[in-house]
TrEMBL record:
PROSITE patterns named among the record's database cross-references: PROKAR_LIPOPROTEIN (PS51257)
Occurrences of domain BioF2-like acetyltransferase (ranges): 295-437
Organism this protein belongs to: Desulfacinum infernum
InterPro entries, per database record: Acyl_CoA_acyltransferase, BioF2-like_GNAT_dom
Record-given protein name: GNAT family N-acetyltransferase
Pfam families membership: Acetyltransf_6 (PF13480)
Keyword match Zinc: no
One MF annotation (Gene Ontology) recorded for this entry: transferase activity
Keywords of this entry: Transferase
Domain of life: Bacteria
Keyword Isomerase: no
Length: 469
C-alpha cells in the first residue's frame, strides 16, 4: 500500500463519526487480525506540519509482536483529532473498540486499547500495565499457535489448542458464542483464555464430555500478568460469573487467577470434581516394565505372550490425513461393539465431531489411531494424540470376540511401548480412575472446578483449606 492510500484510509469514515478528545497526548496500540498477512509498507515519516500527529513525524517504538506476526505500531495522538476507519467507527475515550488490522487492513474483532499519557510521559504498555483483547473469532488463536516454535507461549494443554476448539465449534458448539481473551504486555502476548459466553457468565470453549481438562495458555514466567489482564477483561465484558473447569492442580488459573480473584474481593468456590491419570515415561521399554510391581510386570508379559500364541499379531498406526476417514470407520465399529453406553454416546453429532477433530489434528501431525489386528482382523483400536512430548489416550474400543486374550488392554500397553520407543516423556490415560490405569503405572491427579462471582458474598473455599488434595 502506498503512502497516499494509507492517508486515504485514515481520512475516510462514516458521516456519523465523532472526534476523540483527550486532555493531552495519548498512545493507541494497534492490534492485529491474527492472519499471516503481507506487510503494509508504512511511511517512516509524515510530512512536517501534519494535522494528525503531535510533531508531524511517524514514531514507531519497539512494540509487542502482533497476532498476524507483523510488528504492531504505537502512534502518538494529539489533543483533538479525527481518527476514522473504513468500518465507520471513530474511537472515543472508552478505550476499547473493534478495528481493522494495522498491517493487512482486514476486519478484526481485536480491541485497540487507547489510554492517555500521564504527565510523566508514559508511552506503550509495560509489564505492569498490560492490556487484553477480546474476540469471537479463532483467527488470533491460530496466529499465536502457528508461531509456537518461537516459544512465546506455552501450549501444554491439549484441549485448548486451536484445532481442537475449531473442531468443537464447527460441530458440537456451532451455536455457542466464543469469547477469547488475549493478554498482552510490553514483552508481547502473555496469555490466551478461550471461553464461550452465556449472557453475563462464561465457561471454557469446549464440552467437558469431550474435553478432559482446561487451562489458559500463558507465556513462561508471565502467568500472573496474564491473569491480571484476564481479570480486567472479565470486568470490561460485564461478566458476573465464571465457571471454569476441570482444572489440574498446577494449572495457571488455579495457581494464579484464583489468588488474584481473592485479592479483588470476588467470591470464589473451588471444588474437587474428578481425577485424571498420567505417568512419566522412562527411556526404554525395559525401564518402563521395571517401574511396575512384580505382579503387574508379570501380567503384562503374560498377556503379550498369550496374544502372540493366539495367532499373527499386527500393531499399526494411522497418522495421515488422507487415511483418517477410513480408519475412523474401523474405530467406530470397534468403539461401539462391546458396550451399550459407548454405542449410545456415539451419536451422529458425535461422529461428526470425531471426524472434524481427527482431520484437524492429523494435519498438524498430532493424530495416532492405533490398531491391533489378530489373524488379519481388526481386534482393538485406540485413539491417541501426540504433542511431541506427551501421548494422550483419548478413547478406545475392541471386538468382544477377542476378549479372552485381552486385546483391549494389550492394545493400550502397545501404545505405551510405542510412546517410549519414540522418545515421549509422558503418557496420559486422561480422565477416569479405571483400575487398569493404575496397574499400568498411572498416578491419580485431582481435577477441580472453579466458580468465580463478580461480587463478594459467597464463602471462599480452596482445596488446601478443605482437606482436599
Amino acid at each position: 500500500m502506498k503512502f497516499e492510500a494509507w492517508k486515504q484510509f485514515l481520512k475516510e469514515g462514516s458521516p456519523s463519526a465523532t472526534p476523540m478528545t483527550w486532555p493531552g497526548p495519548c498512545w493507541i496500540w494497534t492490534a492485529s487480525c491474527g492472519r499471516l498477512c503481507s506487510t503494509v509498507p508504512l511511511p517512516k515519516t509524515f510530512p512536517k506540519g501534519g494535522k494528525s500527529f503531535a510533531n508531524g513525524s511517524f514514531r514507531r517504538p519497539k512494540a509487542p509482536p502482533s497476532l498476524c506476526r507483523k510488528p504492531a505500531g504505537f502512534f502518538p495522538l494529539w489533543w483533538t483529532m479525527w481518527w476514522r476507519f473504513e468500518s465507520g467507527f471513530a474511537g472515543n475515550a472508552s478505550g476499547a473498540r473493534p478495528m481493522r488490522c494495522v498491517r493487512c487492513l482486514r476486519p478484526t474483532m481485536s480491541l485497540w486499547r487507547i489510554r492517555p499519557r500521564d504527565r510523566g510521559g508514559a508511552g506503550p504498555p509495560t509489564e505492569d500495565t498490560g492490556m487484553v483483547e477480546v474476540t469471537d473469532r479463532l483467527d488470533s488463536l491460530w496466529g499465536l499457535w502457528e508461531s509456537r516454535r518461537e516459544g512465546l507461549l506455552r501450549w501444554d494443554t491439549l484441549f485448548v489448542l486451536p484445532p481442537w476448539i475449531q473442531a468443537w465449534k464447527e460441530t458440537l458448539g456451532a451455536n455457542e458464542t466464543l469469547c477469547i481473551l488475549v493478554a498482552h504486555d510490553a514483552a508481547g502476548p502473555s496469555g490466551v483464555l478461550p471461553l464461550v459466553r452465556h449472557g453475563d457468565s462464561a465457561v471454557f470453549a469446549g464440552d467437558p464430555d469431550v474435553c478432559d481438562y482446561f487451562d489458559a495458555v500463558t507465556a513462561p514466567g508471565r502467568e500472573e500478568a496474564a491473569c491480571r489482564a484476564f481479570l480486567q477483561g472479565f470486568w470490561q465484558q460485564g461478566l458476573e460469573s465464571l465457571d471454569l473447569g476441570p482444572l489440574r492442580p498446577q494449572s495457571t488459573l488455579l495457581t494464579h487467577l484464583v489468588p488474584l480473584c481473592h485479592e479483588a474481593g470476588c467470591a470464589v468456590d473451588v471444588s474437587r470434581t474428578d481425577v485424571t491419570v498420567d505417568m512419566a515415561l522412562p527411556d526404554s521399554w525395559e525401564a518402563y516394565l521395571s517401574t511396575l510391581s512384580g505382579k503387574q510386570r508379570h501380567e503384562v508379559r503374560r498377556k503379550l505372550r498369550r496374544l502372540e500364541e493366539a495367532g499373527p499379531v499386527s500393531f499399526h498406526t494411522v497418522t495421515e490425513p488422507e487415511k483418517t476417514d477410513e480408519a475412523l470407520d474401523r474405530f467406530f465399529r470397534l468403539f461401539q461393539s462391546n458396550r451399550e453406553d459407548k454405542a449410545r454416546f456415539l451419536t451422529e453429532a458425535m461422529r461428526r465431531y470425531f471426524r472434524a477433530l481427527c482431520r484437524g489434528m492429523s494435519r498438524h501431525g498430532m493424530l495416532r489411531l492405533c490398531f491391533l489386528d489378530l489373524n488379519g482382523m481388526p481386534a482393538a483400536a485406540a485413539l491417541c494424540f501426540d504433542d511431541g512430548e506427551t501421548v494422550y489416550l483419548y478413547n478406545n474400543g475392541y471386538d468382544a470376540a477377542y476378549a479372552h486374550v485381552s486385546v483391549g488392554l494389550v492394545n493400550k500397553i502397545l501404545t505405551i511401548k510405542d510412546a517410549v520407543e519414540r522418545g515421549r516423556r509422558r503418557y496420559e490415560f486422561l480422565r477416569g480412575d479405571e483400575t487398569y490405569k493404575l496397574r499400568l503405572g498411572g498416578q491419580d491427579v485431582p481435577l477441580y472446578r472453579v466458580r468465580i462471582m463478580g461480587r463478594a458474598g459467597a464463602t471462599h473455599r480452596h482445596p488446601a483449606r478443605n482437606g482436599e488434595s
